[in-house]
């Protein structure tokens, strides 16, 4: 049945085309890769927007315009072979639909459209047509519905975030609004109208919800001292500025959160000035200051209230900055940090944050000049770990953009929209620039590298990988010819980086990730991707999609490597960083112990212990390849019931990212459900592993342990938690804990819960020193999960055997916890197994699998149903009494030989669909065999 309206047709055609283009982008053919990448990025904006448009007359016209452009994209360029569409009398296609024959065929068979796009993307004669088509398609990205609509409309960037799981957020319009707001309100008006305000924008802190987008900043306070030659004493005000989205409600009044109490005015009254608020904490101590912005809508609607408002002060600060210390530039950090302390992991984490930030801010006034190591700063910070350990120093996951904000010049309205870092005084300019003045001959000067902001990113990332500023190579004999007598020229840094890539082959000796080395190489040598042959100039709109493609690969790689919290850089010396005031030496961070005492079990404990580090990256890389196949397709997003997992453990730490991704939290220890806690980090690590296996699941943290060891009432709390699981219809329960004694109440709750959900528990970590603990010992109702190493071999932590026919084991050795320590334990194998079970349940609920699963989907969340599936993955890996699970054995044989998948070589649409069908058949066969 064909679509019955133009809007429905546009939705289906654009979604189908997005799949086709995505498959083409997975190939590495440089002939058509660039154009397909541009189309993919544009559809990335268009598809989710059209899914939400109401089917009204105005949007039907817009849908027809979009269909006309998509038809041009898919129409074969050979008139002798026209597309003949099928027709259905009495349908919409009998009228306007006949104008789009290529799209009609696309819905039935993508082969013709695929070949047409390849031809259109690769022919030189189509270059003008390609540019015209791209420009027209971009017009469909940013249109917003009529003001008559009563819905709350997100900005374009937020639509992107919702459209693709794992894509880095853009916040393009919000970034522009933040800049204009600061330029208008956030400057000093006391005694010196043009005095600038120093600030640091937190590049990793932007967050959003349905009502607002919030940015984190730190402002340098103003003591209003005009002593000549004196710099202000460093004192930072931690600040959040929320940009409220315009929401139209009954009566036409703006909504979207509590409104502010005091407006920040432009008058000179002290108590309404911006400076008053950012200096206020000197009297009351460090606190978090909240501002909000209304009236300058990101969309088309206008709020009744306009301006910047102060919301509140908050004494309970989520981040503990050393507010009295100066910021440290990346330049000074590279000069000072030791090579051992500035580890490869820290370099990679910092590179990911900076690359993503450059993409986000690329077209904004914040980046009027290229960012360099002098633009990026850091501030000392204190953090508390789950072990109540105090860490202090510079954290590379908190890079800051150092800016200076000045009052607008009265003579120019445009000046009010520019940050002071865009202004350049004539007295600071080089006298040699007179050579190019109008009084003498005019020469056309063109830099060797035509994308200065892209080059600056590449140089900065190269410096991070080197662990030192590029200037340190000026006197190196290999590069001194680029800067004779150590005099740097405009292309000196570029030429040195170019030599490092082409001659020194730096990536052969440094363990730099493929996506990261690819990003650096293409930033330094842009001709391959950014500026293909015959392209002489590019706009920001041309550059950003390419940069997004590189950044998204880096994000994907970083996610696959399980990024964890990094420990701080401990700087040995005092760093002035352009401040005249002395800075105290940072306190050396305490170190976590390398080993925990191997205490004898008392009543019970959580199941993990620290071991020597050993990589398990290959196991996780293969697992993530399987997850890529099992993930919900785009058309299934948010359309099916999510799997619910309960984690009975030590809770979740509020300062870790896992706390933001759980669906619910209940504290059976303290009874304070509104205050998240995890005193050990064990529960937080379990949740991290579960989310890594199944990020789409609804995870509930149920805190039954206060510490690693159980208290007298812990078994009773476990029984209460199971009752909660029954009441709230959980699908999977993860119990990474064990008790040495049987308990009647716990037993009865286990038996009752096992009829409704899958229960997985940790047996023991003590080998044969102890019997299998409860509740794992309740073998009729609970699936005990033993541990393997990264090579899918049994772990020495396991006891000799379990109580049942099968003794399944999955990865449990050498797992990094939230403290960045390497751990082993059946608790981690339990969490991974629970997450994997959730992933299979999630898979069974997708539109392309649920019919074939039928009632077997319900059986999958039982112990026997899950066992039937695990048997398939342990047939070839039995080690002694243990059935060691190799999850990727679910994949077809031809895909197993390609593991792990690379970001640039992911299986195409047809291959993925075939693999999903075969996996579905295997799972159903296993369930049927177990249930007879």
TrEMBL record:
Domain Peptidase S8/S53 positions: 642-842
SUPFAM superfamilies referenced in this protein's UniProt entry, alphabetically: Subtilisin-like (SSF52743)
Listed Pfam families: DUF7580, Peptidase_S8
Sorted UniProt keywords: Hydrolase, Protease, Serine protease
Region annotation Disordered: where it falls in the sequence: 407-433
PROSITE patterns hit by this protein: SUBTILASE_ASP (PS00136)
A GO molecular function held by the record: serine-type endopeptidase activity
Domain of life: Eukaryota
Compositional bias of kind Low complexity: 407-418
InterPro entries hit by this protein: DUF7580, Peptidase_S8/S53_dom, Peptidase_S8/S53_dom_sf, Peptidase_S8_Asp-AS, Peptidase_S8_subtilisin-rel
Domain DUF7580 residues, every copy: 181-549
GO BP term (any one): proteolysis
Protein name per its UniProtKB record: Peptidase S8/S53 domain-containing protein
Organism this protein belongs to: Cercophora newfieldiana
């Amino acid at each position: 049945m064909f679509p019955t309206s133009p809007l429905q047709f546009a939705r289906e055609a654009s979604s189908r085309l997005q799949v086709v283009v995505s498959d083409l982008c997975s190939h590495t053919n440089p002939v058509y890769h660039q154009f397909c990448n541009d189309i993919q990025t544009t559809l990335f904006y268009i598809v989710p927007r059209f899914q939400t448009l109401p089917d009204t007359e105005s949007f039907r016209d817009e849908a027809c315009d979009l269909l006309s452009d998509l038809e041009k994209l898919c129409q074969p360029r050979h008139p002798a072979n026209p597309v003949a569409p099928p027709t259905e009398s009495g349908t919409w296609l009998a009228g306007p639909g006949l104008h789009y024959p290529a799209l009609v065929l696309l819905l039935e068979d993508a082969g013709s459209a695929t070949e047409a796009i390849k031809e259109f993307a690769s022919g030189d004669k189509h270059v003008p047509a390609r540019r015209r088509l791209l420009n027209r398609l971009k017009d469909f990205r940013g249109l917003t519905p009529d003001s008559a609509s009563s819905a709350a409309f997100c900005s374009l960037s937020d639509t992107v975030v919702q459209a693709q799981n794992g894509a880095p957020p853009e916040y393009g319009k919000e970034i522009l609004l933040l800049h204009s707001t600061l330029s208008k309100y956030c400057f000093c008006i006391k005694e010196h109208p043009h005095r600038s305000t120093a600030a640091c924008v937190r590049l990793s802190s932007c967050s959003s919800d349905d009502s607002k987008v919030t940015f984190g900043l730190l402002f340098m306070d103003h003591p209003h001292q005009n002593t000549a030659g004196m710099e202000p004493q460093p004192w930072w005000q931690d600040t959040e500025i929320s940009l409220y989205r315009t929401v139209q409600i009954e009566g036409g009044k703006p909504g979207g959160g509590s409104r502010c109490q005091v407006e920040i005015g432009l008058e000179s009254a002290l108590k309404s000035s911006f400076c008053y608020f950012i200096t206020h904490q000197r009297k009351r101590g460090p606190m978090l200051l909240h501002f909000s912005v209304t009236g300058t809508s990101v969309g088309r609607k206008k709020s009744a209230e306009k301006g910047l408002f102060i919301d509140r002060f908050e004494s309970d600060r989520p981040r503990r900055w050393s507010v009295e210390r100066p910021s440290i530039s990346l330049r000074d950090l590279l000069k000072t940090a030791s090579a051992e302390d500035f580890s490869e992991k820290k370099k990679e984490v910092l590179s990911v944050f900076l690359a993503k930030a450059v993409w986000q801010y690329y077209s904004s006034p914040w980046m009027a000049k290229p960012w360099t190591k002098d633009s990026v700063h850091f501030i000392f910070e204190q953090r508390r770990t789950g072990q109540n350990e105090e860490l202090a120093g510079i954290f590379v996951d908190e890079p800051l953009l150092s800016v200076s904000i000045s009052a607008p010049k009265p003579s120019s309205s445009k000046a009010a929209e520019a940050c002071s870092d865009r202004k350049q005084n004539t007295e600071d300019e080089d006298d040699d620039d007179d050579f190019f003045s109008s009084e003498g001959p005019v020469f056309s000067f063109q830099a060797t590298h035509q994308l200065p902001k892209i080059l600056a990113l590449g140089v900065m990332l190269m410096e991070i990988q080197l662990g030192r500023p590029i200037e340190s190579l000026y006197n190196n004999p290999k590069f001194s010819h680029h800067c004779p007598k150590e005099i740097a020229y405009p292309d000196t840094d570029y030429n040195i980086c170019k030599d490092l890539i082409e001659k020194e082959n730096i990536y052969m000796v440094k363990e730099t990730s493929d996506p990261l080395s690819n990003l650096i190489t293409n930033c330094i040598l842009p001709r391959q991707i950014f500026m293909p042959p015959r392209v002489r100039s590019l706009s920001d709109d041309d550059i950003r999609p390419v940069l997004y493609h590189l950044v998204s690969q880096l994000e994907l790689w970083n996610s696959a490597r399980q990024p964890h919290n990094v420990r701080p850089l401990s700087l040995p010396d005092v760093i002035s960083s352009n401040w005249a005031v002395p800075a105290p030496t940072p306190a050396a961070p305490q170190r976590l112990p390398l080993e925990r005492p191997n205490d004898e079990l008392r009543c019970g404990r959580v199941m993990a212990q620290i071991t020597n580090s050993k990589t398990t990256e290959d196991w996780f890389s293969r697992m993530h390849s399987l997850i890529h196949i099992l993930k919900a397709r785009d058309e299934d997003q948010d359309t099916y019931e999510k799997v619910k997992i309960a984690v009975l453990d030590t809770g979740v730490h509020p300062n870790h990212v896992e706390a933001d991704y759980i669906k619910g939290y209940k504290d059976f220890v303290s009874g304070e459900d509104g205050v998240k806690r995890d005193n050990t980090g064990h529960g937080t690590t379990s949740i991290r592993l579960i989310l890594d296996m199944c990020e789409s699941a609804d995870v509930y943290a149920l805190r039954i342990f206060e510490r690693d060891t159980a208290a007298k009432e812990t078994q009773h709390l476990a029984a209460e938690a199971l009752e909660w699981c029954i009441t709230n219809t959980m699908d999977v329960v993860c119990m990474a804990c064990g008790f040495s004694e049987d308990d009647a109440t716990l037993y009865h709750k286990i038996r009752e819960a096992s009829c409704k959900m899958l229960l997985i528990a940790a047996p023991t970590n003590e080998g044969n020193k102890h019997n299998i603990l409860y509740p794992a010992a309740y073998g009729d109702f609970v699936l005990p999960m033993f541990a393997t190493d990264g090579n899918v071999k049994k772990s020495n932590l396991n006891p000799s055997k379990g109580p049942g026919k099968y003794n399944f084991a999955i990865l449990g050795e050498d797992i990094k916890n939230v403290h960045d320590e390497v751990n082993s334990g059946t608790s981690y194998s339990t969490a991974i197994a629970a997450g994997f079970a959730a992933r299979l349940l999630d898979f069974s609920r997708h539109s392309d699998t649920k019919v074939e699963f039928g009632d077997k989907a319900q059986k999958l969340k039982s112990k026997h149903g899950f066992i039937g599936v695990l048997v398939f993955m342990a047939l070839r890996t039995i080690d002694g009494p243990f059935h060691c699970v190799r999850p990727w054995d679910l994949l077809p044989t031809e895909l197993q030989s390609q593991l792990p998948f690379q970001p640039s070589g992911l299986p195409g649409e047809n291959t993925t669909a075939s693999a999903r069908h075969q996996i579905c058949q295997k799972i159903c066969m296993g369930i049927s065999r177990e249930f007879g």
